[in-house]
TrEMBL record:
It comes from Marinobacter adhaerens. This is Phosphate ABC transporter substrate-binding protein. It comes from the Bacteria.
Length: 174
């Protein structure tokens, strides 16, 4: 969101209430790595170059620590976890929610090595061409979803909880 708020100028209108997103690094369950520096010189899987928590946060921490590695983009979070569990790569970047889902779906052989601090999650945002009135109507609708059974069902269908109004300053932690 932070990048798209600059050009073309998207504006945040809502975000998930009480939620933070964290990047994680996973390794094979029996791997001896105990810290990120143990990944020096290895190939690491990432879902996509622009994935905020799974790629950008993880890569920033590796660079901050001076850890050299070769990135390999594998198109999805699930592909990261499978690549690690099957030993195709030493480690990979992901997020807690998708890793938990993968474990619930039967993924075995991987564990979390590192977790980032929490950051404000993804924004519901509107293009700058939207009128102020339309922007307000959409924000009101999104925020009110958790107030009805039907709305809760819609949110639950995409694994979201209640939404709250948002402003650009909510992403100052990024």
């Amino acid at each position: 969101y932070v990048e798209f708020s600059k050009v073309p100028g998207y504006r945040a209108i809502a975000r998930e209430q009480g939620k933070q997103i964290r990047g994680i690094v996973v390794v094979r369950e029996n791997d001896t790595a105990s810290q990120l520096s143990d990944l020096e010189g290895e190939t690491l899987a990432f879902p996509a170059p622009a994935a905020f928590a799974a790629t950008i946060l993880v890569r920033a921490e590796l660079e901050r620590l001076g850890v050299s590695y070769t990135p390999k983009y594998v198109s999805s979070h699930d592909s990261v976890y499978l690549s690690v569990a099957r030993g195709f790569v030493k480690a990979g970047g992901g997020i807690e929610r998708t890793f938990s889902s993968a474990l619930e779906s039967g993924l075995e052989g991987a564990r979390v090595l590192w977790r980032s601090p929490g950051y404000t999650p993804h924004a519901f945002a509107v293009h700058p061409d939207f009128s102020e009135g339309d922007k307000e109507k959409i924000a009101d609708l999104l925020v009110s979803l958790s107030e009805t059974e039907e709305g809760q069902g819609l949110l639950g269908g995409v694994t979201l909880k209640a939404l709250v109004r948002a402003s650009d300053s909510d992403w100052d932690d990024v």
